[in-house]
Amino acid sequence: MAGRDLKALFSTNDRSVQAAKAFTNRSSQWETVAAALTEHLQHVTFPGFDPEDLEAPRSNVLVFHGVGGIGKTTLSRTLEAALADAGRRPSQWGAPGWPADRILPVRINLARSEGTDFEQIVLTIRAALTRIGRPLPAFDLALRRYWEVNHPGEPLEEYLRRSGLGSRFGQALPQQMQSALADVAQTLMLPGTIGSVVGQVTGALVSALRERRQTVRALAGCARLADLLEADPDLDTLSFYPHLLAWELGRLPQGRRVVPVVLLDTFEDIGDRTRRDLERLIQRAVWLLPNAFWVITGRSRLQWADPALQGQLDYTGPAAWPGLAHAAVPAPRLPAVPVTGRQVLVGDFSPEDCDDYLARRLTRDGQPLIGEPIRQVITARSHGLPLYLDLSVARFLELRRSGRTPQPGDFDHDFPALVARTLSDLTPDERHVLRSVSLLDAFDVPLATRAAGLSHEGPALRLTERPFVRDTPFGLWPFHLHGLIRSAVRNADDTTDDRWTERDWQQAAQRAFTTLGEQHHAADGPGRLILIACLRQGLRLARDHRLDLAWLTAAAWTYVSDSVWEPLAPPDTDSAGMDTAADALVELLSTLARRQHEHRARTVSRLTAVLDTHLLPGDLQEMALYYRAKSLRDTGRATESRRDYQQVADQGGRLAPAARRGLAHAARLAGDFPTALAAAQNLGWEGRHHRVLGDLYWLQGQPERAAAAYLAGRTEAEQHGKAGEAAHNQALRAFAIALYAPDQATAEIDLAHQLLAGLNLRATTINVRRAELIRDADSNSIDDQITTLRTELDNAGLASLAPAIELAGAFHHAVLDDHTALNATLTRLRQQTSAEDHAYFVDIAHFMAGLPLDSPSPARWLEGQHSARQRWRGLVNARRDHLRATR
């Protein structure tokens, strides 16, 4: 569906440009309307339906709410057109399941600019019903009395002409009202000359109704007509007249029955949460006219199902409006209507819809005037908000008018108009909170209140009810701003009277940052969820606003202590642009998390860049140095790794025990097993002593002792709440057990996978796969698995793990007594090891196969080379015996 876009048309001299108001998709909203209207039609034709029932819950309202500019008004107009004329229904929308002549749509714009009041709402609905072609005497008589009292001397015909209702619906209403008045006068046998004097007719009719005269038996069926005619005909009384309209519609002959569909648009403009005068009148009309179907579009949800509004509105609570409650409730008195949620958030356009919309808005010779590269940029920036698309079209025309050819870079742009639209109906305190939370990725009411520097939570609570605030109920902080609104509030030129200065933004950032730190410190236990959430937001605030590290230092240490490595730092970090300590910390933690996905050489380079800035305090500088030592070891640069480890150990800081463990590992890698064993005795929990011992024992051919040590290490890690360390010990325990008890290894491998669930530990995962290789030795797939692992290790830069994978292959070939394959493996092992690292792996491969060793490594075996040879050969023979027994 499209119409002429006059604003765009008058923005260019190029007559070849065709400007159209494109309507895109919204099929799901049409399906919702069709389903709800179908249910309503079933309900009003149900034998038990009574339009005069004032107590039954109502299900005759459907609400579409959403952020300003999302396309609610366009949706309302399109719904009116589609209901009025099937030929104007968008091609994407399916055909409805009801006869077209039964539906009577009437749309009313409640925008302040329209000046619509309640009187005009009532007249518009009645004027639309003139299409039925007959008077509605009970209603018409009451309305005529109201009009003559409140508009003395003003003909209704003139009012209809002046308000535009006459041209919209014709002038049938005054004639139908006069006809109803004359019919009642004739029924009462009043002189024809006074048939036009509504006061006398009304008085006579009330008397006849009270006396239950047979002459007025048709109108006597309306039980409350006399009461309404006797009441003062003021605005409040007018709001009860829809009851008469409901009664009249209910008694129409079967062939003339219609269901009005009243579309109330821009509902947010009828007032606010403290001034509900017009809303009260409208709600009363909706309640008293249950056989009409009401489609309301506005920025916010209707609050009618909120019991707290009792006294402000006449009909409130979930029992009255079961479909409007946050969680739809059953309506036992409406068996024909399966009431579901009737408040629908109008969502953003999909990227495909955005592109289609832009392609059809401006055309020349049937081709899109806005090229695809520009459309892609606008779509990405829009977050699916139609208003942004419209503003971008206007910008496109403005750039052409200035003589420039629009380029994609011209649309990396925020519009002040978005800010104005968003702030227009917020209170000053709500605007203050909105600006504050635009600094945050997510928030709750206390965090928003503290970030805004307010002492009361009301404004933050009210803000969360706005449609541009999205709700994730199961999140730590359940609320976040619509992406485009957040960007606009933060970055667009704010021209409002209460706009913020740079100092205001800085102070808000500091308040939010401090509050995040307080929430982190106040958390029960070391919970990773609150830690990661606070770090993610705190790092961004500190980096973007050049804040001191404060609580981030302690949080960073907590983050690295468990080696879990959740994604953490903001994605747009740039190590070349580190100017503050916050920049350096963001880069440091980002590097540590990313090293699970990057080549370790890249990790070394990034950590070196952080260290060279000297921006971090001493303890965090030590953190960077320690993890560079680990990465250097992983890439096979043993000498440089030992240098960094030694420097950290000498400083005696928080990571000194871990650095001493690194030095013990270095001694083990070099084959100096006695030195590594001596160091392990003094490492304690902080130095992960059990894991260091397990690494020594399996190399000596004692996997049982290694498995026991790893179990002790896992238990100790679990006692300290260190999930990453527990998973690492379990992976190594599974490997050790696979060497001597392959049947038992499967359960241990499964447990390792369970402990790794949700963790991001690449090296540990590879150790589990190494355990699987050992367990499956003699399998036909082992060589293929090893080939795959070689590629993964090469891509990850984990050179230090490559010899361990080749050793697993040597075990497999030794079990099969495949000397050809074993020789190839020995060749690779000699290439991957050196005098410094893993040289003894070549020795162990010979021990496994029972081969003589002409040039042994300089390794110092804990119980001598002969003992190690016997144990490794024994493990291979035991596996052969096991395989023979199971075949």
Describe the structure using short key phrases.
single chain, mainly alpha, 5-stranded parallel beta sheet, 4-stranded antiparallel beta sheet
Would you mind describing this structure in some detail?
With 887 residues, the chain is mostly helical. The chain is 56% helix and 5% strand. Among the domains are: 2-25 and 349-406, no CATH class; 27-345, no CATH class; 776-887, no CATH class. Residues 328-339 have low confidence and may be disordered.
Overall spatial form: elongated
Residue share in β-strands: 5-15%
Q: Give the beta-strand count.
A: 11
Instruction: Evaluate the radius of gyration.
Output: 39 Å
- The end-to-end span amounts to 74 Å
Oligomer: single chain
Rounded average pLDDT:
86
Strands of the widest sheet, in order across it, are: 4-5-6-3-7
Residues in helices, as a percent range:
55-70%
Number of DSSP helices? 41
Outline the biggest β-sheet.
5 strands, parallel
Kindly name the structural category: mainly alpha
List unreliable stretches of 5+ residues. 328-339
